[in-house]
Design goal:
alpha/beta, five-stranded parallel β-sheet, globular, binds 5'-O-[(S)-butoxy(hydroxy)phosphoryl]adenosine
């Protein structure tokens, strides 16, 4: 296939056998690195400022503060400036519920809804700087609630609606939120998820929560506690035509906290700011996906994750795009639900995950053949590296060999894309499985274990040399953890924690986490968190978690469990522990296997030999153990490996 480059030249995206002029991209990237302040000052005109900034970047490592002295409001970027322009009747959101309900929301409607919601928050006593927890299904109120918080300067803390009561309370207690917004329930594969009931269990453990604001959505009656619970519909009516003036925020004021897994047993609150984040999220969307005014944009992520924050809510709205938001499961009521949606709304930009692509791949092309997907122009991928096989399938059967695949490498912490093809700057050749080249403003390097720059084609650790506007402000309430996690592994560099390799053409290959974080369907979960949770089960004495490769999910969780003396392993107990993990953390923590063992492979100093666990979980050989970084002998490792293998085989047969 060919693509017409912005320069008017024709190119084949998949051939590398002639030289492509990549000058526009290269010049822009070079300028962004040579003069970041000048570069970002030029870009910052894309935002609507109440007051211009004094300084583009205040860099006091490890803290980068962007556009200090400037004032603006994030909600105004996303709503007011479009609603107050000739775009006011433009559709902001086409919402499609799982049951087939739909809602069409223009920018003018969105302004109305956000104002009313903001008035409710104010009436409930929420003030600038307060934290508000949001636990909602993918309904328009989720977007409205986030924007209403932004409007009044409250810091939202969205908790993915698949998390358990315990997980909610951990996040609420860490952020000290005083209000939680939820719904009676949500729909998932035709069933009602009783979200309000889960919030009740959580709130019982959350002393900071004063009120629970409930959106009436599903047809069932949750328990209502008259002292604490408020139906949104009751308070909305009072403030029908309310107008709430947007709070003029400092550029560096926090916008939200989003919890993510690290290597400790507790998730950490990633704190993002206002101007830098808004600018970075919207510019990167523009550069990577090349949207135009008539694009129909669909990001399939849930707003409970960073992809939803940046590329479902803030960036597409800041750019004034028309988005599709779908509430439900991709395979409900049938496996072609997504293709129906693309056909129905004529989606032109589609952004999803490798795990979804692999699920569709497994179900076969015949589901796609029933639908006309020719509206698609650009397609994205995020969450983990996309394997070349899935990449080619995506390219061929969904994109009809016509759409570049924008593989976006980034993290909750980075706020926006770091490495991704820049179709909005200049088309250039793609390589299936590579996220290609850094975004403007991003200066990555591959370092070896000693912190020296690695040669081309050598695997090492990716590190980022300079601050960028989307970078996190801090770990909420834990600056030491911020410094230690991101800035101490290679002093002076931001350390994302991924393995990576840069090839001879300068293309980047992201090779997975280098730490104890597992990626299940693109979602982060740490082994420590899993281990911490499972020992809460009354039969479990000790446990260790590992990942095994999974054809669809990328990685799946395997738990090695030592039972207390008065318990014996059984299939029932395995099932019970799997169920327990769902209530202890949520659906993301569901193990595929629970393996009962008598002992865990440990070094003499008591550290779990994770490589041994991993090899047994994956059913592979222990491989090269000469570089084990502890004092354990090769023989000891081999013994531990053989013992664990035998125990696992026994556990699987019992
Ligand atoms: C980790 C961040 C960023 C939004 C969704 C996940 C992995 C993410 C890619 C990609 C290779 C990727 C990395 C990263 N990752 N996208 N395109 N290629 N790896 O956000 O939960 O913060 O996870 O996801 O390992 O460190 P997250």
């Amino acid at each position: 296939m060919t693509t017409i480059d912005k320069s008017g030249e024709k190119h084949n995206l998949m051939t590398n056998d002639y030289f492509w002029p990549m000058k526009r991209y290269q010049d822009m990237h070079k300028r962004s690195i040579d003069d970041p302040e000048g570069f970002w000052a030029e870009q910052a005109g894309a935002l609507a400022w109440d007051k211009p900034w004094d300084k583009v970047l205040d860099w006091k490592p490890p803290y980068g503060r962007w556009f200090t002295g400037g004032k603006l409001n994030a909600c105004v970027q996303c709503v007011d400036r479009h609603a107050m322009s000739q775009k006011s009747s433009k559709v902001a959101i086409y919402w499609e519920g799982e049951t087939g309900d739909t809602r069409t929301i223009s920018y003018a409607d969105l302004l109305h809804d956000v104002n009313r919601f903001a008035a409710v928050l104010k009436k409930l006593g929420v003030q600038k700087g307060d934290r508000v927890a949001i636990y909602l299904p993918m309904i328009p109120e989720l977007v409205t609630a986030m924007l209403a918080c932004a409007r009044i300067g409250a810091i939202h803390c969205v908790i993915f609606s698949g998390f358990s009561a315990q997980a909610i309370s951990d996040r609420v207690n860490d952020s000290n939120a005083k209000l939680i917004i939820t719904a009676s329930g949500g729909y998932r594969r035709g069933k009602i998820l009783a979200l309000k009931g889960i919030v009740d269990d959580a709130v019982a453990m959350c002393p900071s929560i004063e009120k629970v604001l409930v959106v009436k959505y599903t047809d069932h009656e949750p328990n209502i506690n008259p002292d604490k619970d408020i139906w949104l519909s009751d308070v909305l009516n009072d403030s029908d035509n309310a107008v709430v003036a947007p709070e003029s925020m400092d550029a560096t004021d926090p916008l939200f906290i989003l919890y993510t897994s690290g290597t400790t047993g507790k998730p950490k609150g990633i704190l993002h700011g206002t101007a830098g984040y808004m600018l970075y999220a919207s510019k990167t969307l523009q550069w990577a996906f090349n949207p135009s005014d008539d694009s129909i944009y669909w990001c399939t992520a849930d707003a409970g994750w960073i992809t939803g924050h940046s590329y479902l809510v803030y960036a597409p709205l800041a750019l004034g795009l028309t988005s599709v938001i779908y509430e439900g499961a991709p395979d409900y009521p049938a496996i072609d639900r997504w293709w129906q949606i693309i056909e129905k709304y004529r989606v032109s930009i589609f952004y999803t995950s490798p795990t979804a692509i692999r699920m569709f791949m497994r179900n076969g092309e015949e589901w796609l053949a029933k639908h006309d997907l020719s509206s698609l122009q650009v397609m994205g991928s995020v969450g983990e590296a996309i394997n070349p096989e899935a990449w080619r399938w995506y390219y061929k059967y969904i994109g009809y060999e016509n759409c570049p695949i924008i593989d976006t490498w980034w993290q909750t912490e980075t706020g926006g894309f770091m490495i991704a093809p820049c179709a909005g700057i200049q088309s250039y050749p793609l390589k299936p499985g590579s996220a290609t080249l850094p975004m403007p403003g991003v200066d990555p390097v591959v370092l070896d274990a000693d912190g020296n720059e690695a040669a081309p084609n050598k695997t090492g650790f990716i590190a980022i040399r300079k601050p960028w506007p989307g970078m996190l402000l801090d770990v909420y309430g834990n600056p030491d953890l911020y410094q230690k996690t991101y800035w101490s592994r290679f002093p002076g560099y931001y350390a994302p924690g991924d393995y990576s390799m840069k090839d001879a053409d300068g293309y980047w290959w992201l090779l997975g986490r280098a730490d104890e974080v597992i990626k299940v369907s693109g979602h982060r979960i740490s082994t420590a968190e899993l281990e911490h949770a499972v020992v809460g089960h009354s039969a479990v004495a000790e446990a260790a978690a590992a990942a095994k490769p999974d054809e669809v999910k990328g990685e799946a969780i395997v738990l090695f469990v030592i039972l207390r003396n008065d318990h014996v392993g059984s299939v029932e107990l395995q099932k019970e522990i799997i169920k327990y993990m769902r209530t202890a953390i949520g659906t993301v923590a569901t193990p595929d296997d629970v393996i009962f063992v008598d002992k865990l492979p440990k070094t003499r100093s008591g550290k779990i030999m994770r490589r041994v666990l991993k090899a047994v979980a994956a059913g592979t050989s222990i491989g090269d153990i000469t570089t084990l970084d502890d004092q354990t002998s090769v023989e000891e490792v081999m013994v531990a490996y053989e013992e664990l293998k035998v125990a696992a085989a026994k556990s699987n047969n019992g």
